[in-house]
Specification:
This protein is an alpha/beta fold. Helices cover 53% and strands 13% of the residues. The protein has 11 helices and 8 strands. Helix 4 packs across helix 5.
Length: 254
Amino acid sequence: MAWLILDRPEKRNTMTFDFFRGLTEHFGRFDADPNVRVVVVRAEGKSFCAGLDLVEGAALLGDGSAAQREMTRWRIKELQDNISAAERCRKPVIAAIHGHCIGGGIDLTSACDIRLASRDAVFSIRETRIAIIADVGTLQRFPTIVGQGLFRELALTGRDFTAEEVFRIGFLNRLYEDRESLVQGARELANEIAANSPLAVQGVKEVILFTRDNGLFPGLDFVAQKNSAVLPCEDLKEAVGAFMEKRKPTFSGN
């Protein structure tokens, strides 16, 4: 289990450009490390993430020239790619959210596989309130998780919404009473996932994302190809042996 900790508590973990680049770096490292089977993202301080650092974000505006606008477009594409690093990571990613999760915080957690929160968590797709369009993933990923109905209200109003509200519509998997139980719950869930065959777990994530983006029948073709590529494997033999011997399997990822 790897922990990715947002650690700029004095600024409520607002996102600088270095922060975005760090996502690509860290998730790429987790993806390549065979010893990492699950990643948990959590935060220090009072908030999970209060969104983009607006002082740095102002640099995107520039002088309004055509050249500057094209540079802004490419910078936005780069930030999108940074957030997508969590989704591209073959290892499952769990977000453990407390306090405020605003703007870019929702972009990041939407790109994670599983979201947990403490009851004090407060969310907002805040961009409409500061006269911009959310542009690094929320508008694309959030509705695929919860559906279009309430999502459109939240995106258009920019209002705050509670952990209980998004738990009911399926954005959150589980709610916890406080931050301590949240972190413990994330640890227990990560351990449960990590105990499974990493080949199977990573394959499931790949198939889920491929099917979401390409449709039912291409997804069926992809999973047939995926399973034929990995079976038989040592983990399958270990699973059968453990069943016969009435013990828990120990998977190696081979």
